[in-house]
Design goal:
By secondary structure, this protein is mostly beta strands. It is about 5% helix and about 40% strand.
């Protein structure tokens, strides 16, 4: 669909009654129809109409389109969101632009806005049986009058309206006589018609007595100008109540905020850096996407360094959690929340929401360690399972290991006697998450390579007997490469060559010389 914007041409000059009032649209491609005075254009012997556009409020102008006056409309597609000014000039029979000169009079202003408003909600129990809701709406072209807030709580049938003044930010409180989950959902439109939604819920203890739930207290101050509601909203919405006790705060080093904007869509995949590119070798066991699996099942391909750990191991602090939505109802899905723990569920924190509501979920953790995760899905009606409680084990654990193995190349010795064509390579490797086949071996005639594969990935036996090829080089250098289950690599090389000498010295009699004369 294209948006039609009104444009009038009178005597070849562009005039707009609404030039001072920009048109806001969610379409970046639109049609600008116009009307002309045929007599005026005939007197000018008009050849074409030219549409000029400025994206910097009239500082610079560029030609957008030239058309025959009979076409009756311009077609324009903006390069993105922004404010665009339009001006029209007529090319007359003398190849002169009318109005002439380099002055452009903006006749139409259009704001292209395709982004949905952001609705930030924060809900917390300020005292037993009383909750406080704060909201903050973000959009350059917001229409606050369309704000709609609703709540659901124990003892109240269905969703009830939160009656507040339609402001871009504010707060209100109300009583919750019965303990349980209180949910709030909000929506707002911007002037372009984009719809933004937000949901939040919290577990409250309830009041001291039973009774009908109190309506939100609309007498509370709305959008107090001396408070930083945006900061308060961000802080409150990150923690959430995960138990019946007071709201928790992330401890030092814990991720207690949503995914930052610089999280990559895929984790960094590190290839084996110790090959020349000509060898045939396995890719390191890096998991771009972590799929949740039962915690009591061993994941194929994981290392045997820690037999008690049954989760996934990755070599990057940025990874993805794949998830699947089951039993989705007719109201659809409004939010996907992720919860994180660093101590096997003894303490849970709210990590954040998946912005696009599509698997996978981008995750970034602050440091190496073991992290557990739980995911919760909110329906369009605001229903969801309760957040994980403290003491509840995670359904999946991810170990972040960015430390390469410690590797040492020991003696490299050529065999003797009947085994002189065998070279024994010994090494020592240590790593908490060593791969099941962590060692590969390479040989070269010089330190500069090329390095040829001696043995592909193999178990850590501490030594390997290499059978030398016939007519091989007279000296060899050896390289050992180690990998762990996360995909970290280490190498060790011989600093001195092993001299290969497969020839057995022999002698033969070639002549008989007379003996020394007797005295």
């Amino acid at each position: 669909m294209r948006t039609c914007l009104s444009l009038c041409l009178v005597a070849g000059l562009a005039t707009f009654a609404s030039a001072a009032n920009p048109i806001v649209t969610a379409k970046n491609r639109f049609r600008i129809p116009f009307k002309v005075d045929p007599a005026a254009l005939q007197r000018m012997n008009a050849q074409e109409l030219r549409l000029y556009v400025s994206s910097d409020r009239g500082a610079t102008w560029s030609l957008a389109q030239s058309i025959n006056p009979e076409i009756g409309k311009f077609e324009y597609q903006s390069p993105g969101d922004g404010e665009f000014w339009f001006s029209v000039k007529t090319l007359d029979g003398d190849n002169q632009l009318q109005p002439n000169g380099r002055v452009f009079e903006p006749g139409l202003m259009v704001i292209v806005d395709t982004r949905e408003p952001r609705v930030d909600l924060a809900l917390q129990e300020v005292q037993q049986g009383k909750v406080q809701l704060s909201w903050h709406l973000h959009d350059q072209n917001l229409d606050p009058s369309t704000l709609k807030l609703e709540y659901s709580q124990p003892g109240v049938a269905g969703w009830q309206t939160v009656s507040v003044s339609p402001r871009s930010a504010g707060q209100t409180t109300w009583s919750v006589p019965q303990g349980g989950i209180v949910a709030v959902r909000g929506s707002v439109l911007d002037q372009a018609g984009n719809l933004g939604r937000g949901t939040i819920q919290s577990t409250v203890r309830g009041g001291d007595g039973a009774g009908k739930a109190a309506m939100p207290d609309t007498r509370q101050p709305i959008a107090s100008m001396n408070r930083d509601i945006s900061t308060e909203t961000a802080n409150n919405s990150m923690t959430g109540a995960l138990s019946t006790g007071p709201m928790i705060q992330p401890s030092t080093g814990m991720v207690g905020r949503p995914v930052s904007s610089d999280v990559q869509s895929r984790p960094e995949i590190v290839k084996n850096p110790y090959t020349t590119g000509a060898e045939n070798f396995d890719e390191p066991p890096v998991q771009p996407t972590v799929t949740p699996q039962p915690t009591n099942a061993k994941v194929a391909g994981m290392g045997a360094g820690d037999p008690l750990f049954k989760g996934r191991i990755v070599a990057t602090r940025k990874f993805q959690l794949a998830y699947k939505i089951d039993d989705l109802g007719p109201s659809g899905m409004s939010a996907v929340e992720l919860f994180i723990t660093q101590n096997n569920g003894q303490q849970w924190y709210r990590y954040g929401e998946d912005a696009d509501l599509k698997s996978p979920f981008d995750v970034q953790v602050p440091q190496d360690g073991i992290y557990g995760f739980e995911i919760r899905v909110h329906s369009g009606a605001g229903l969801s399972a309760e957040p994980p409680r403290n003491g509840e084990a995670p359904s999946i654990q991810v170990k972040v290991d960015q430390t390469a193995p410690t590797l040492e190349l020991l003696a490299v010795e050529q065999g003797q006697g009947m085994q002189q064509n065998l070279v024994t390579i010994r090494w020592r490797v240590q790593d908490a998450n060593l791969s099941e086949t962590p060692i590969s071996l390479y040989g070269a005639a010089s330190p500069a390579g090329p390095w040829n594969l001696i043995s592909d990935w193999r178990p850590d036996t501490g030594s390997f007997r290499w059978e030398l090829p016939p007519n091989g080089p007279s000296q060899v250098f050896v390289r050992v490469v180690a990998r762990d289950a996360a995909g970290n690599f280490a190498k060790a090389e011989s600093t001195q060559p092993v001299v290969i000498d497969l020839k057995r010295p022999s002698a033969r009699i070639v002549d008989v010389a007379p003996g020394m004369p007797r005295d």
